[in-house]
Amino acid sequence: MDLFYQTFQLTLSLAFSATFILLILGLPIAYLLSRTQSGWKPLLEALISLPLVLPPTVLGFYLLLALSPNSMLGGFLAEQLGIKLIFSFEGLIAGSVIYSLPFMVQPIQSGFENLPGNLAEASYVLGKSKLTTLFKVLIPNIKPSIITAIVLSFAHTIGEFGVILMIGGNIPGETRVASIAIYDEVEAMNYAIANRYALVLIVFSFLILLLVYTFNKKYFRIKGR
Amino acid sequence: MMQIQIKKKLGFEKHSFDLDVNLEIQKGELLGISGPSGSGKTTLLRIIAGLEKKVAGTISCNDQLWLHSEKKVFLPPQKRKAGLVFQDYVVFPNMTVRQNLQFAQDNKEEKAYLDQIIAVMQLEHILSQYPATLSGGQKQRVALARALVRKPAILLLDEPLSALDSDMRNQLQDFIMTIHQQFELSTLLVSHNHEEIVRMSDRILHLQKGKITGYSDSLPKKGISGIVTNIQVRQDAYLEISLQTEAKQPVIILLPQQDYPNIKKGSILNIQIP
User: Fold this and answer.
1) CA dist B223 to A158, B216, B252, B253, Å?
2) Total Cβ atoms within 10 A of residue A21
3) CB–CB of A125 and B83 under 8 A?
């Protein structure tokens, strides 16, 4: 397959996989963080937000150490489960999930926190369990926050560079995503090819954002808010 | 019949006080609760609904135990047959009016009952609308209807009309009294508005700093006479007058200050209403 298409296919499958896992992981974390009054809350919030302020290379560096077959975690994964996370597509997903977690958790958490507190209580008094309340009342009322979180995580994964470079390298069909390809082509002085990658990224990102803003506007109009 | 005997600490350290209430509500009774802000009215309703933790005492409803702190009985809000209506409606924005009502239904088969509620509350023409497109009065009618869907043993109304203008208020007062009678409910109504509470209630409970300071009958519908034992001027220009009558408990009545300028402690008050 053409290297150009292969690169974008890989970029998209990384973004889709990471976003999917992030949603499954991020929703319950955001819900629990929005509900808890525990003393652990600031600690957890700080941990999740760490990738926002750290240079991606720092995160990538420690992930590299932690996941390498010589380390305890990496050794265990490789020997017991046969999973190799360094210089592999699976490793990129794992790194992206950690790296983009704040982009998924924060919008959803603030969505939950901005709901009127008695919305859940009204549902409990109507005999509905916490789970039913979560899925039928709370989540449907923070749809815009969830969509924002999904798009931000997706876009952030597409634009990821430092972490991937550290733990993935530049293996075509395995870890060579668009942002890495641009860097690689520029290094090799192939500006025209780098330009093709860059242009596609710009157009693609613009279209996604346009879609989201159009949808949100429509959503607010339908519900009259 | 409902019996409530509860105690709960309210407020912050220096300004804390105990909400300490012992009361009975008869089947079919509409009991008004009156009292200044921060006296524990809303908390009392929340305790009955099961939304407050750390409550000492007992609550029983038609021989079913909802709370017995010593026996560690705490029925969660889901299991209590209490209909709670909030001041700010809390109609679910993601559901249409019909979906809001259906959501509350335990038994989806009972279509006739649902239709009856819809008819009584006059919701037919807004069933497919989302709450954001409704007026305050419409939203509150939906909230009331939704509370009725579960056939509550007690209806708890927390300032249900205070966000509405006076026309809508009068209309909804009638609605509430209609459903109260038609569905043979026991109802607790918290309200700041004196005229409203007098008009609607069979009996009014006065709460101050967490304690019941007295009951009054639905004055001034009937006459009353007795010796004035205490007078307080309220912010809304009503006098809160404690009367020693033939009854054991002191009776509290509220009278407009301007109509009774000369009333004093120790004087005899005699109101006759034909």
Assistant:
1) 79, 12, 13, 11
2) 17
3) yes
Per residue in A67-77, pLDDT (tens digit) is: 888 888 888 88
pLDDT at B18 over 70: yes
Q: Is the pLDDT of residue B268 over 90?
A: no
Q: Homologous superfamily of A3-222 in CATH?
A: MetI-like (1.10.3720.10)
Instruction: Note the Cα B244 to chain centre separation in Å.
Output: 26
Question: CA separation (Å) from B225 to A205, B130, B228, B244?
Answer: 80, 52, 9, 8
Check: CB of residue A87 under 8 Å from CB of residue A174: yes
pLDDT band at A221 (very low <50, low <70, confident <90, very high): low
Amino acid at B22: N
- Residue A223 contacts B, CB cutoff 8 Å: yes
Q: Which residues pair with B265 in a beta bridge?
A: none
Q: How far is B141 from chain A (nearest CA, A)?
A: 15
What does the alpha-carbon distance between residue B154 and residue B188 come to, in Å, rounded to a whole number?
Answer: 8
Contact B48, B154 (CB under 8 A): yes
Residue contacts between A and B (CB atoms, under 8 Å)? 62
Distance CA A194, CA A184 (A): 8
- Pair B114, B105: CB distance under 8 Å: yes
Contact call for B104 and A137, based on CB within 8 A: no
A125 interfaces chain B, CB cutoff of 8 Å: yes
B90 phi-psi bin (left φ>0, alpha ψ -120 to 50, beta other): left
Q: How far apart are CA B191 and CA B37, in angstroms?
A: 10
B32 pLDDT higher than 90:
yes
Which domains are assigned to chain B?
2-208 (3.40.50.300), 223-271 (2.40.50)
Q: Which of B84, B93, B106 sits opposite A125 (nearest CB)?
A: B84
Domain limits, chain A: 3-222
Chain A residue whose CA is closest to B52: A121
ipTM of the complex: 0.82
Q: Do A224 and B78 touch (CB under 8 A)?
A: no
The residue of chain B nearest to residue A137, with distances taken between CA atoms, is B92
Residues of chain B contacting residue A128, judged by C-beta atoms under 8 Å apart: 78, 103
Mean pLDDT for B254-271 is 80
> Cβ of A126 and B103 within 8 Å?
yes
